[in-house]
């Protein structure tokens, strides 16, 4: 019994000693570990996290598009011309490769259209946001307007022209397909309009029109190429 | 197992073919170009240069051989035209055009030489964003050569293309 008492007393003494040492260490400034500072806690998401979320959203969007394309592919080349069931069962090269090639071409065309939309968006953004350099814009608009009165533009009518600092946007209506096809070639034969040009031809119910982006002579259109 | 491997190989080859192809650059002689100025035909020298020996300005069109696997997805094509421009007031001007298979020109770049030089050639640099063309879109180069000046004639020596 006395042994138990001594044991309890010893344990209590050891506990008191450990508590004392602990309380003493708490007063000593600590070198290694940094205490958490309340002022440094961010209330909103940090900038890195926001960027990561944006990147993940973009990746998710790309994956969704890829999935959409893959879902469409089996429907596009349903039955290849000239392919027989027997040949397919035997695993011959013809019927297996033809749908793959067609599907890949369709996917490639889809990617190209998406890329063209990107470039168009870039051109349109520049056309809407660029400041106007009146010293260049006014005479260039006059030159474009005068040019459309010449014989090279027979069958085409200029409905709008607006120049900014580095590019002009033109809207043109056409009487026929030939006038639409030759628009760009005729436009770049005009002295003073030497630059890059992109035409977006449209044909809505037989009504032909074109939207033209034309750069300042010697300059390039605002398009970010990947290569 | 063999069939599976074969299918995978075919798929891999198809994917490889789908990659935007990059072709090596090529240089062509001016002799490839054809006059589109009616009866005003240029002279072709044995060296392959095209020389405007007519009395006035002429216009020529040069077809371009496309040598990429996926032309519709190629981002850009660069041109470097070498010409001699001895005319003091007029210039050699060239326009590279990208056209849809039906003949509708959809993108172009145009440039001219600057100044005049009777002895040394000058260059014109052009660039096209070919991603705009659908499958089988084609490229052509068109150049305007001024008439003779003090007995010196304008020349289209060569054109370099990098797809």
TrEMBL record, chain A:
<protein>
    <submittedName>
        <fullName>Uncharacterized protein</fullName>
    </submittedName>
</protein>
<dbReference type="InterPro" id="IPR027273">
    <property type="entry name" value="Neocarzinostatin-like"/>
</dbReference>
<feature type="region of interest" description="Disordered">
    <location>
        <begin position="68"/>
        <end position="117"/>
    </location>
</feature>
<feature type="compositionally biased region" description="Basic and acidic residues">
    <location>
        <begin position="99"/>
        <end position="117"/>
    </location>
</feature>
Automatic annotation (TrEMBL), chain B:
<protein>
    <recommendedName>
        <fullName>Lipoprotein</fullName>
    </recommendedName>
</protein>
<keyword id="KW-0732">Signal</keyword>
<feature type="signal peptide">
    <location>
        <begin position="1"/>
        <end position="23"/>
    </location>
</feature>
């Amino acid at each position: 019994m006395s042994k138990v008492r001594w044991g309890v007393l010893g344990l209590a003494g050891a506990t008191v000693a450990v508590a004392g040492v602990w309380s003493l260490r708490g007063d000593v400034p600590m070198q290694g570990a940094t205490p958490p500072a309340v002022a440094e806690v961010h209330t909103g998401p940090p900038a890195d996290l926001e960027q990561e979320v944006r990147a993940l959203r973009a990746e998710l969007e790309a994956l969704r598009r890829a999935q959409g394309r893959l879902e469409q592919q089996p429907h596009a080349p349903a039955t290849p011309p000239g392919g027989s069931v027997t040949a397919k069962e035997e695993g011959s090269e013809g019927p297996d490769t033809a749908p793959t090639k067609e599907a890949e071409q369709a996917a490639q065309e889809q990617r190209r259209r998406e890329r063209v939309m990107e470039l168009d968006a870039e051109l349109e953004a520049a056309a809407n946001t660029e400041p106007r350099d009146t010293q260049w814009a006014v005479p260039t608009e006059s030159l474009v307007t005068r040019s459309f009165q010449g014989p090279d533009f027979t069958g085409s009518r200029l409905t709008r022209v607006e120049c900014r600092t580095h590019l002009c946007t033109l809207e043109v209506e056409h009487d026929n397909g030939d006038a639409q096809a030759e628009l760009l070639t005729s436009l770049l034969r005009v002295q003073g309009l030497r630059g890059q040009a992109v035409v977006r031809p449209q044909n809505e119910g037989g009504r032909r029109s074109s939207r033209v982006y034309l750069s300042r002579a010697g300059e390039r259109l605002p398009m970010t190429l990947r290569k | 197992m063999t069939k599976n491997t074969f299918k995978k190989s075919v798929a891999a080859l198809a994917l490889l073919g789908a990659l935007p192809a990059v072709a090596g650059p090529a240089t062509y002689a001016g002799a490839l170009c054809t006059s589109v100025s009616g009866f005003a035909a240029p002279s072709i020298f044995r060296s392959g240069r095209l020389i405007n020996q007519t009395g006035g300005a002429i216009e020529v069109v040069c077809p371009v051989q496309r040598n990429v696997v996926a032309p519709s997805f190629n981002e850009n094509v660069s041109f470097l035209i070498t010409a001699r421009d001895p005319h003091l007031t007029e210039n050699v001007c060239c326009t590279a055009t990208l056209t849809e298979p039906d003949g509708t020109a959809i993108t172009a770049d145009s440039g001219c030489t600057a100044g005049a030089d009777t002895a040394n050639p000058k260059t014109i640099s052009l660039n096209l964003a070919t991603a705009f063309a659908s499958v089988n879109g084609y490229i052509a180069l068109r150049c305007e050569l001024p008439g003779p000046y003090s007995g010196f004639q304008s020349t289209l020596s060569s054109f370099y293309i990098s797809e």
